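Q: How do we represent a protein-ligand complex in a form that can be generated token by token?
A: Start from the inputs.
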Amino acid sequence: MGEEIESIQCPCGRVIENPEEYKVLYLKHELQEIDILCPNDSCYLRELGYIKFELQEGKAKFKEASFYPPFVTWNSGRLGADEAEAKLKNHLKMIAKKVDWTRLGLQKPATT
Ligand SMILES: [Zn+2]
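Then emit the structure tokens for the protein with zinc ion bound:
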């Protein structure tokens, strides 16, 4: 029996072995939120999670990050809750590490 390595998977079927594969969108700067997207362009979920940040004295600081319930539930069902939680937590950590915090801090929020 060929045992497959248990990887995180999006409900659309896309396996995400490496946190580098997620797409990260910086569009919601005013909301101080970064979207985490599925690497599959035709994914029906698209948004898998988010990272929230704060701007303090021109610096962007990590606030919180989370995956959305459909993605978490899907992986808990496949890997078991503990395993999925540990893996997803690690993915979030890696994604947050990859964020260009300096660049984020340089962008001024639109205040009128
Ligand atoms: Zn997907």
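The chain has a mean pLDDT of 90. Residues 17-106 form one domain.
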